């Protein structure tokens, strides 16, 4: 039997009827048509479905839909202002940190969190912070550079 779940996604309130066995990934992708949340391993290992849930990165494939009741969810779609991509997205583009693009939204959401919370921006600290995200196309060098570029933009006063 479906239950009504109330959550805020990218600043907009939603009431969604969902089976309690569905995951947050199912609700976001299938019910709300949020296309940046990708279905990868469905085991929390690849990070393709990463979103911010109440401000923290989570693999949405592991979150039961009922657990999202009353939650705030941020996806890559929420990182646009008046149609302009967030400086983090711009950094991923500028640094060629996008290959096939399947993993990119998950990397972007984890990086968004790290830029706001890490105090040590050494390569090792960034790599440790990104451990839950896997890319099969890159050597991670460009992704690492994009995160550093975005951090510099934030420190220089870019909108965040």
- Cα-based radius of gyration, to the nearest Å: 15 Å
CATH homolog superfamily of the largest domain: [2Fe-2S]-binding domain
Oligomeric state as shown: single chain
Strand order of the largest sheet: 2-1-5-3-4
Number of strands: 7
* Structural class determined from secondary elements: alpha+beta
Overview of this structure, please?
This protein folds into 2 domains: 3-76, Roll (Ubiquitin-like (UB roll)); 80-155, DNA polymerase, domain 1 (Orthogonal Bundle). It is built from 5 helices and 7 strands, in the order E-E-H-E-E-E-E-E-H-H-H-H. The protein has helices spanning 24-31, 87-94, 104-117, 123-129, 141-155, and strands at 3-9, 12-18, 50-53, 56-59, 72-74, 80-81, 84-85. The strands form 2 sheets. The protein has a 5-stranded mixed beta sheet with strand order 2-1-5-3-4, with helices on both faces. The protein has a two-stranded antiparallel ribbon with strand order 6-7. Strand 1 (3-9) and strand 2 (12-18) form a beta hairpin. Helix 2 (87-94) crosses helix 5 (141-155) and helix 3 (104-117) packs across helix 5 (141-155). The chain starts with a strand and ends in a 5-residue tail after the last helix.
């Amino acid at each position: 039997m479906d239950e009504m779940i109330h959550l805020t996604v990218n600043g907009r309130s939603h009431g969604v009827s969902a089976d309690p066995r569905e995951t947050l990934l199912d609700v976001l992708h299938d019910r709300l048509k949020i296309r940046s949340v990708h279905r990868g391993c469905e085991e929390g290992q690849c990070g393709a479905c990463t979103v911010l849930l109440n401000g923290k990165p989570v693999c949405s494939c592991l979150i039961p839909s009922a657990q999202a009741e009353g939650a705030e969810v941020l996806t890559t779609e929420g990182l646009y202002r008046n149609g302009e991509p967030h400086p983090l997205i711009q950094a991923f583009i500028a640094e060629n940190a996008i290959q096939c693009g399947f993993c990119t939204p998950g990397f972007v959401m984890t990086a968004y969190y790290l830029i706001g919370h890490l105090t040590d921006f050494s390569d090792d600290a960034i790599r440790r912070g990104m451990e839950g995200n896997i890319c099969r196309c890159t050597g991670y060098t460009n992704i690492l550079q994009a995160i550093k570029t975005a951090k510099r933009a934030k420190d220089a006063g870019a909108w965040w």
